[in-house]
Design a protein that fits this description.
By secondary structure, the chain is an alpha/beta fold. Helix content is 23%, strand content 20%. The strands form 3 sheets. A 7-stranded mixed β-sheet has the order 6-5-4-3-2-1-19. A 6-stranded mixed β-sheet has the order 7-8-9-10-11-18, with no helix packed on it. Helix 4 packs parallel to helix 5. The longest helix has 14 residues. The chain is globular.
Amino acid sequence: MKITMHRGAKTIGGTCIEIEHEGTRIIIDMGIPLMDSSGKEIDKNLLKNPTTDNGILPRVSGLYKEDIPTISAVLVSHHHQDHYGLINHVHPSIPIYASQGTKELIEIGNIFCGPKVNLSNIKIFEHWKEFYINSIIIKSYLMDHSGFDASAFLIGTEKNRNTIFYTGDFRAHGNKGNLFKKMIGNPFTNLKVLILEGTNFIDIVPEYPDEKSVKNAFIKLFKNQSGPSFICSSGSNIDRIVNLYKAIRTSRKILVIDLYSAFVLDRLKTVTTRIPQFNWRNIRVYFEGSHKHLLEKTLGKSSYEKFESRIIKIEDVALLGNRAVIKIPPNRIESVMRRVPNKTGMSTIVYSMWKGYLKNTTIYDKLCTKHGMDFKYIHTTGHAYREDLVMLANVQNEESIIIPVHTCHGDDYEKYFRKERVVKLEDSNNEYTVK
Protein backbone atom coordinates (compact mmCIF):
# COMPACT_ATOMS: atom_id res chain seq x y z
CA MET A 1 0.00 0.00 0.00
CA LYS A 2 1.46 3.34 -1.07
CA ILE A 3 0.86 6.79 0.46
CA THR A 4 1.35 9.93 -1.64
CA MET A 5 1.23 13.33 0.05
CA HIS A 6 -0.11 15.70 -2.59
CA ARG A 7 -0.60 18.50 -0.04
CA GLY A 8 -0.63 18.92 3.73
CA ALA A 9 2.89 17.94 4.76
CA LYS A 10 3.86 21.50 5.76
CA THR A 11 0.59 23.40 5.73
CA ILE A 12 -2.57 23.72 7.76
CA GLY A 13 -5.51 23.24 5.41
CA GLY A 14 -5.79 22.03 1.84
CA THR A 15 -5.01 18.42 2.76
CA CYS A 16 -4.90 15.96 -0.14
CA ILE A 17 -3.52 12.44 0.38
CA GLU A 18 -3.55 9.49 -2.00
CA ILE A 19 -3.65 5.84 -0.96
CA GLU A 20 -2.94 3.22 -3.65
CA HIS A 21 -3.26 -0.56 -3.45
CA GLU A 22 -3.24 -3.01 -6.36
CA GLY A 23 -4.28 -0.30 -8.81
CA THR A 24 -7.04 1.16 -6.64
CA ARG A 25 -6.37 4.84 -5.91
CA ILE A 26 -8.34 6.80 -3.32
CA ILE A 27 -7.97 10.44 -2.34
CA ILE A 28 -8.47 11.54 1.27
CA ASP A 29 -9.74 15.11 1.48
CA MET A 30 -9.76 17.69 -1.27
CA GLY A 31 -9.68 21.04 0.50
CA ILE A 32 -8.99 24.67 -0.28
CA PRO A 33 -5.46 25.60 0.85
CA LEU A 34 -5.12 28.31 3.49
CA MET A 35 -1.39 28.83 2.93
CA ASP A 36 1.43 27.83 0.61
CA SER A 37 4.25 25.50 1.63
CA SER A 38 6.21 28.43 3.08
CA GLY A 39 3.34 29.32 5.41
CA LYS A 40 2.40 32.44 3.47
CA GLU A 41 -1.32 33.16 3.22
CA ILE A 42 -2.87 32.15 -0.10
CA ASP A 43 -3.69 34.94 -2.53
CA LYS A 44 -7.50 34.87 -2.55
CA ASN A 45 -7.57 35.95 -6.18
CA LEU A 46 -6.11 32.57 -7.10
CA LEU A 47 -9.09 30.84 -5.50
CA LYS A 48 -11.41 32.37 -8.10
CA ASN A 49 -9.92 30.15 -10.80
CA PRO A 50 -8.22 27.13 -9.21
CA THR A 51 -5.75 25.31 -11.43
CA THR A 52 -2.78 23.01 -11.02
CA ASP A 53 -0.61 25.70 -12.60
CA ASN A 54 -1.42 28.31 -9.93
CA GLY A 55 -1.01 25.73 -7.18
CA ILE A 56 -4.57 25.73 -5.84
CA LEU A 57 -5.38 22.31 -7.32
CA PRO A 58 -2.86 19.65 -6.31
CA ARG A 59 -1.32 17.76 -9.20
CA VAL A 60 -3.16 14.43 -9.13
CA SER A 61 -3.42 12.49 -12.37
CA GLY A 62 -6.80 11.06 -13.28
CA LEU A 63 -8.74 13.16 -10.76
CA TYR A 64 -10.12 16.16 -12.59
CA LYS A 65 -12.95 16.82 -15.04
CA GLU A 66 -10.61 17.14 -18.01
CA ASP A 67 -8.79 13.87 -17.17
CA ILE A 68 -9.54 10.27 -18.00
CA PRO A 69 -10.60 9.23 -14.48
CA THR A 70 -8.27 6.76 -12.76
CA ILE A 71 -9.10 7.66 -9.15
CA SER A 72 -11.52 5.18 -7.58
CA ALA A 73 -12.99 7.46 -4.88
CA VAL A 74 -12.56 10.63 -2.83
CA LEU A 75 -13.10 10.46 0.95
CA VAL A 76 -14.12 13.65 2.77
CA SER A 77 -13.34 13.68 6.49
CA HIS A 78 -15.59 16.63 7.39
CA HIS A 79 -17.34 19.70 6.04
CA HIS A 80 -14.72 22.41 6.62
CA GLN A 81 -13.73 24.09 3.36
CA ASP A 82 -10.05 23.29 3.80
CA HIS A 83 -11.02 19.60 3.55
CA TYR A 84 -13.75 19.50 0.92
CA GLY A 85 -13.75 22.87 -0.86
CA LEU A 86 -12.22 21.66 -4.16
CA ILE A 87 -14.33 18.55 -4.81
CA ASN A 88 -16.27 20.49 -7.46
CA HIS A 89 -13.25 19.99 -9.72
CA VAL A 90 -13.29 16.21 -9.35
CA HIS A 91 -14.39 14.20 -12.40
CA PRO A 92 -18.17 13.64 -12.03
CA SER A 93 -17.82 9.86 -12.45
CA ILE A 94 -15.62 9.58 -9.34
CA PRO A 95 -17.71 8.89 -6.21
CA ILE A 96 -17.39 11.19 -3.20
CA TYR A 97 -17.72 9.42 0.18
CA ALA A 98 -18.87 11.37 3.25
CA SER A 99 -20.79 10.95 6.50
CA GLN A 100 -24.44 11.95 6.66
CA GLY A 101 -23.65 15.04 8.73
CA THR A 102 -20.94 16.14 6.33
CA LYS A 103 -23.29 15.72 3.37
CA GLU A 104 -26.01 17.75 5.10
CA LEU A 105 -23.63 20.62 5.86
CA ILE A 106 -22.20 20.71 2.35
CA GLU A 107 -25.75 20.84 0.97
CA ILE A 108 -26.56 23.69 3.36
CA GLY A 109 -23.43 25.47 2.15
CA ASN A 110 -24.73 25.10 -1.40
CA ILE A 111 -27.83 27.08 -0.39
CA PHE A 112 -26.25 29.85 1.66
CA CYS A 113 -22.60 30.19 0.73
CA GLY A 114 -21.74 29.21 -2.83
CA PRO A 115 -20.19 28.30 -5.11
CA LYS A 116 -22.33 25.19 -5.35
CA VAL A 117 -20.65 21.83 -4.91
CA ASN A 118 -21.73 18.95 -7.14
CA LEU A 119 -22.99 16.13 -4.91
CA SER A 120 -24.67 14.05 -7.62
CA ASN A 121 -22.23 11.19 -7.07
CA ILE A 122 -22.02 11.25 -3.27
CA LYS A 123 -22.11 8.04 -1.25
CA ILE A 124 -22.83 7.96 2.49
CA PHE A 125 -20.82 5.84 4.90
CA GLU A 126 -21.74 5.05 8.50
CA HIS A 127 -19.31 5.50 11.37
CA TRP A 128 -17.87 2.29 12.82
CA LYS A 129 -18.91 0.20 9.79
CA GLU A 130 -16.50 -1.09 7.17
CA PHE A 131 -16.97 -0.38 3.48
CA TYR A 132 -14.96 -1.49 0.48
CA ILE A 133 -13.48 0.39 -2.46
CA ASN A 134 -12.24 -2.50 -4.54
CA SER A 135 -9.40 -4.12 -2.56
CA ILE A 136 -9.21 -1.35 0.05
CA ILE A 137 -11.22 -1.64 3.29
CA ILE A 138 -12.17 1.58 5.10
CA LYS A 139 -13.76 2.20 8.49
CA SER A 140 -14.82 5.67 9.64
CA TYR A 141 -14.33 6.70 13.26
CA LEU A 142 -16.44 9.56 14.58
CA MET A 143 -14.07 12.17 16.05
CA ASP A 144 -14.37 15.05 18.50
CA HIS A 145 -13.84 18.19 16.42
CA SER A 146 -15.39 21.62 15.93
CA GLY A 147 -16.51 20.31 12.54
CA PHE A 148 -19.72 18.35 13.08
CA ASP A 149 -19.72 14.58 12.35
CA ALA A 150 -15.99 14.57 11.55
CA SER A 151 -14.32 11.30 10.55
CA ALA A 152 -10.98 9.61 10.91
CA PHE A 153 -10.29 6.70 8.59
CA LEU A 154 -8.82 3.27 9.32
CA ILE A 155 -7.60 1.91 5.99
CA GLY A 156 -6.41 -1.58 5.19
CA THR A 157 -6.89 -4.78 3.25
CA GLU A 158 -8.09 -8.30 3.94
CA LYS A 159 -4.52 -9.12 4.96
CA ASN A 160 -4.30 -6.31 7.52
CA ARG A 161 -7.31 -4.10 8.20
CA ASN A 162 -5.18 -1.87 10.45
CA THR A 163 -2.63 -0.69 7.92
CA ILE A 164 -3.13 3.12 7.99
CA PHE A 165 -5.00 5.40 10.39
CA TYR A 166 -5.64 8.95 9.17
CA THR A 167 -6.79 11.06 12.11
CA GLY A 168 -8.31 13.93 10.13
CA ASP A 169 -8.89 16.99 12.30
CA PHE A 170 -9.72 16.06 15.89
CA ARG A 171 -9.39 17.03 19.53
CA ALA A 172 -9.85 15.49 22.98
CA HIS A 173 -11.40 18.45 24.81
CA GLY A 174 -14.77 19.02 23.12
CA ASN A 175 -18.25 17.77 23.90
CA LYS A 176 -17.34 14.33 22.53
CA GLY A 177 -14.05 13.96 24.37
CA ASN A 178 -15.00 10.43 25.43
CA LEU A 179 -14.38 9.32 21.84
CA PHE A 180 -10.70 10.10 22.33
CA LYS A 181 -10.59 8.25 25.66
CA LYS A 182 -12.07 5.15 24.02
CA MET A 183 -9.51 5.34 21.23
CA ILE A 184 -6.66 5.59 23.73
CA GLY A 185 -8.07 2.61 25.62
CA ASN A 186 -8.35 0.52 22.45
CA PRO A 187 -5.24 1.02 20.31
CA PHE A 188 -5.10 -0.57 16.88
CA THR A 189 -3.48 -3.99 16.66
CA ASN A 190 -0.47 -4.08 14.35
CA LEU A 191 -1.01 -0.55 13.00
CA LYS A 192 1.58 0.24 10.33
CA VAL A 193 1.16 4.00 9.73
CA LEU A 194 -0.43 6.84 11.70
CA ILE A 195 -1.07 9.96 9.59
CA LEU A 196 -1.31 12.43 12.46
CA GLU A 197 -2.65 15.98 12.23
CA GLY A 198 -0.57 18.52 14.12
CA THR A 199 -2.23 21.92 13.96
CA ASN A 200 -1.38 22.52 17.62
CA PHE A 201 1.94 20.68 17.80
CA ILE A 202 3.36 23.66 19.71
CA ASP A 203 3.55 25.03 23.23
CA ILE A 204 0.14 26.50 23.95
CA VAL A 205 -1.46 27.77 27.16
CA PRO A 206 -5.09 28.46 26.27
CA GLU A 207 -7.28 30.73 28.33
CA TYR A 208 -10.16 28.35 27.66
CA PRO A 209 -8.69 24.83 27.39
CA ASP A 210 -11.91 23.00 26.58
CA GLU A 211 -15.56 23.37 25.66
CA LYS A 212 -16.55 23.02 29.32
CA SER A 213 -14.54 26.11 30.25
CA VAL A 214 -16.16 27.98 27.34
CA LYS A 215 -19.60 27.02 28.62
CA ASN A 216 -18.73 28.12 32.16
CA ALA A 217 -17.41 31.46 30.86
CA PHE A 218 -20.70 31.99 29.04
CA ILE A 219 -22.66 31.19 32.20
CA LYS A 220 -20.64 33.67 34.25
CA LEU A 221 -21.09 36.38 31.63
CA PHE A 222 -24.81 35.80 31.14
CA LYS A 223 -25.61 35.72 34.86
CA ASN A 224 -23.94 39.10 35.36
CA GLN A 225 -25.00 40.89 32.17
CA SER A 226 -26.98 44.10 32.53
CA GLY A 227 -27.67 44.34 28.79
CA PRO A 228 -27.85 41.90 25.90
CA SER A 229 -24.86 39.78 24.88
CA PHE A 230 -23.93 39.41 21.21
CA ILE A 231 -22.15 36.15 20.37
CA CYS A 232 -20.21 36.00 17.09
CA SER A 233 -19.73 32.36 16.18
CA SER A 234 -20.14 29.94 13.32
CA GLY A 235 -23.61 28.56 12.67
CA SER A 236 -22.09 25.17 11.84
CA ASN A 237 -20.01 24.85 15.04
CA ILE A 238 -22.60 22.66 16.71
CA ASP A 239 -20.62 22.08 19.92
CA ARG A 240 -20.54 25.84 20.45
CA ILE A 241 -24.30 26.19 19.92
CA VAL A 242 -24.95 23.29 22.30
CA ASN A 243 -22.85 24.97 25.00
CA LEU A 244 -24.47 28.32 24.34
CA TYR A 245 -27.82 26.67 24.90
CA LYS A 246 -26.67 24.98 28.11
CA ALA A 247 -25.34 28.33 29.34
CA ILE A 248 -28.53 30.30 28.63
CA ARG A 249 -30.64 27.58 30.22
CA THR A 250 -28.52 27.64 33.39
CA SER A 251 -28.57 31.45 33.56
CA ARG A 252 -32.27 31.70 32.58
CA LYS A 253 -31.76 33.72 29.41
CA ILE A 254 -33.25 33.63 25.91
CA LEU A 255 -31.08 32.46 23.00
CA VAL A 256 -31.88 34.36 19.81
CA ILE A 257 -30.48 32.66 16.70
CA ASP A 258 -30.48 33.62 13.03
CA LEU A 259 -32.45 31.73 10.39
CA TYR A 260 -29.32 30.05 9.04
CA SER A 261 -28.47 28.54 12.45
CA ALA A 262 -32.07 27.43 12.96
CA PHE A 263 -32.05 25.76 9.55
CA VAL A 264 -28.74 23.99 10.25
CA LEU A 265 -29.97 22.62 13.58
CA ASP A 266 -33.23 21.48 12.01
CA ARG A 267 -31.44 19.62 9.19
CA LEU A 268 -28.98 17.94 11.53
CA LYS A 269 -31.67 16.48 13.79
CA THR A 270 -31.74 13.60 11.28
CA VAL A 271 -28.17 12.83 12.38
CA THR A 272 -28.58 13.40 16.13
CA THR A 273 -31.43 14.36 18.43
CA ARG A 274 -29.03 15.77 21.04
CA ILE A 275 -28.78 19.30 19.68
CA PRO A 276 -31.04 22.32 20.37
CA GLN A 277 -33.98 23.04 18.07
CA PHE A 278 -35.69 26.29 17.10
CA ASN A 279 -38.95 25.34 18.86
CA TRP A 280 -37.41 24.72 22.27
CA ARG A 281 -38.92 26.95 24.94
CA ASN A 282 -36.09 29.48 25.43
CA ILE A 283 -35.04 29.89 21.79
CA ARG A 284 -36.22 32.54 19.33
CA VAL A 285 -35.35 33.00 15.63
CA TYR A 286 -34.71 36.21 13.71
CA PHE A 287 -34.76 36.57 9.94
CA GLU A 288 -31.80 38.68 8.84
CA GLY A 289 -30.15 39.45 5.54
CA SER A 290 -30.66 37.20 2.55
CA HIS A 291 -31.27 33.89 4.33
CA LYS A 292 -35.04 33.85 3.76
CA HIS A 293 -34.62 34.78 0.09
CA LEU A 294 -32.00 32.08 -0.49
CA LEU A 295 -34.17 29.40 1.10
CA GLU A 296 -37.24 30.45 -0.86
CA LYS A 297 -35.28 30.55 -4.11
CA THR A 298 -33.72 27.12 -3.55
CA LEU A 299 -36.30 25.11 -1.59
CA GLY A 300 -39.50 27.15 -1.59
CA LYS A 301 -41.44 28.89 1.19
CA SER A 302 -42.05 25.69 3.14
CA SER A 303 -38.35 25.56 3.95
CA TYR A 304 -38.60 28.52 6.33
CA GLU A 305 -42.31 28.80 7.23
CA LYS A 306 -41.96 26.41 10.16
CA PHE A 307 -39.52 28.84 11.83
CA GLU A 308 -42.02 31.70 11.75
CA SER A 309 -43.75 30.30 14.85
CA ARG A 310 -40.67 31.32 16.86
CA ILE A 311 -39.79 34.52 15.03
CA ILE A 312 -38.66 37.67 16.78
CA LYS A 313 -37.85 40.90 14.98
CA ILE A 314 -34.36 42.25 15.55
CA GLU A 315 -35.87 45.56 16.65
CA ASP A 316 -37.81 43.70 19.38
CA VAL A 317 -34.80 41.93 20.85
CA ALA A 318 -34.13 45.02 22.98
CA LEU A 319 -37.42 44.32 24.76
CA LEU A 320 -35.83 41.19 26.22
CA GLY A 321 -33.31 43.42 28.00
CA ASN A 322 -30.62 41.54 29.88
CA ARG A 323 -32.33 38.23 29.13
CA ALA A 324 -31.17 38.38 25.51
CA VAL A 325 -28.23 36.35 24.18
CA ILE A 326 -28.04 36.96 20.43
CA LYS A 327 -26.00 34.65 18.22
CA ILE A 328 -24.83 36.55 15.15
CA PRO A 329 -22.85 35.55 12.06
CA PRO A 330 -19.69 37.69 12.05
CA ASN A 331 -20.60 39.30 8.72
CA ARG A 332 -23.92 40.56 10.15
CA ILE A 333 -22.70 41.97 13.48
CA GLU A 334 -22.78 45.63 12.45
CA SER A 335 -26.21 45.40 10.81
CA VAL A 336 -27.79 43.62 13.77
CA MET A 337 -26.33 45.83 16.47
CA ARG A 338 -27.46 48.95 14.69
CA ARG A 339 -31.03 47.75 15.11
CA VAL A 340 -30.85 46.56 18.71
CA PRO A 341 -30.82 49.66 20.92
CA ASN A 342 -29.39 49.01 24.35
CA LYS A 343 -31.77 50.41 26.94
CA THR A 344 -30.92 48.25 29.90
CA GLY A 345 -27.21 48.53 30.67
CA MET A 346 -23.77 47.43 29.50
CA SER A 347 -23.79 45.06 26.53
CA THR A 348 -20.99 42.71 25.51
CA ILE A 349 -19.72 41.46 22.18
CA VAL A 350 -18.25 37.97 22.48
CA TYR A 351 -16.04 36.69 19.69
CA SER A 352 -16.18 32.88 19.75
CA MET A 353 -14.16 31.78 16.73
CA TRP A 354 -10.51 31.34 15.78
CA LYS A 355 -8.63 34.47 16.82
CA GLY A 356 -6.75 34.63 13.53
CA TYR A 357 -9.87 35.93 11.81
CA LEU A 358 -9.60 39.10 13.89
CA LYS A 359 -6.20 40.20 12.64
CA ASN A 360 -7.51 41.97 9.53
CA THR A 361 -10.51 43.71 11.03
CA THR A 362 -11.16 46.60 13.41
CA ILE A 363 -14.95 46.36 13.28
CA TYR A 364 -15.27 45.07 16.85
CA ASP A 365 -13.17 47.89 18.31
CA LYS A 366 -15.27 50.41 16.39
CA LEU A 367 -18.56 48.88 17.51
CA CYS A 368 -17.52 48.74 21.16
CA THR A 369 -16.43 52.39 21.04
CA LYS A 370 -19.53 53.50 19.19
CA HIS A 371 -22.02 51.65 21.41
CA GLY A 372 -20.11 51.78 24.71
CA MET A 373 -19.74 48.01 24.91
CA ASP A 374 -17.36 45.44 26.34
CA PHE A 375 -15.48 42.96 24.14
CA LYS A 376 -14.64 39.42 25.23
CA TYR A 377 -12.88 36.55 23.47
CA ILE A 378 -14.27 33.18 24.57
CA HIS A 379 -13.17 30.25 22.43
CA THR A 380 -11.34 26.94 22.49
CA THR A 381 -9.48 25.32 19.63
CA GLY A 382 -11.01 22.67 17.42
CA HIS A 383 -7.72 20.76 17.28
CA ALA A 384 -5.91 18.44 19.69
CA TYR A 385 -3.16 19.71 21.95
CA ARG A 386 0.33 18.29 21.54
CA GLU A 387 0.09 16.12 24.67
CA ASP A 388 -3.00 14.41 23.24
CA LEU A 389 -1.37 13.92 19.84
CA VAL A 390 1.64 12.32 21.53
CA MET A 391 -0.60 10.14 23.66
CA LEU A 392 -2.54 8.84 20.66
CA ALA A 393 0.68 7.97 18.83
CA ASN A 394 2.37 6.33 21.79
CA VAL A 395 -0.43 3.89 22.62
CA GLN A 396 -0.06 2.39 19.14
CA ASN A 397 2.35 -0.30 18.04
CA GLU A 398 5.80 1.16 18.84
CA GLU A 399 7.02 0.17 15.39
CA SER A 400 4.26 2.13 13.63
CA ILE A 401 5.36 4.99 11.39
CA ILE A 402 4.09 8.54 12.11
CA ILE A 403 3.52 10.88 9.18
CA PRO A 404 2.81 14.55 10.05
CA VAL A 405 -0.05 16.26 8.21
CA HIS A 406 -2.11 19.45 8.54
CA THR A 407 0.73 21.14 10.40
CA CYS A 408 3.44 23.76 10.15
CA HIS A 409 5.43 21.94 12.84
CA GLY A 410 6.33 18.61 11.25
CA ASP A 411 9.99 19.08 12.14
CA ASP A 412 9.06 19.05 15.83
CA TYR A 413 7.61 15.52 15.75
CA GLU A 414 11.10 14.05 16.09
CA LYS A 415 11.45 15.79 19.47
CA TYR A 416 8.63 13.67 20.89
CA PHE A 417 8.92 10.39 19.01
CA ARG A 418 11.86 8.19 18.10
CA LYS A 419 13.47 9.63 15.00
CA GLU A 420 13.09 6.39 13.05
CA ARG A 421 9.30 6.41 13.62
CA VAL A 422 8.76 9.79 11.93
CA VAL A 423 8.52 9.98 8.15
CA LYS A 424 8.24 13.57 6.93
CA LEU A 425 6.84 13.63 3.44
CA GLU A 426 6.99 16.62 1.13
CA ASP A 427 4.09 18.02 -0.86
CA SER A 428 3.70 17.10 -4.53
CA ASN A 429 4.08 13.39 -5.17
CA ASN A 430 6.32 12.46 -2.23
CA GLU A 431 5.58 8.77 -1.58
CA TYR A 432 5.88 6.25 1.25
CA THR A 433 5.33 2.54 0.70
CA VAL A 434 3.94 0.71 3.73
CA LYS A 435 6.11 -2.28 4.57
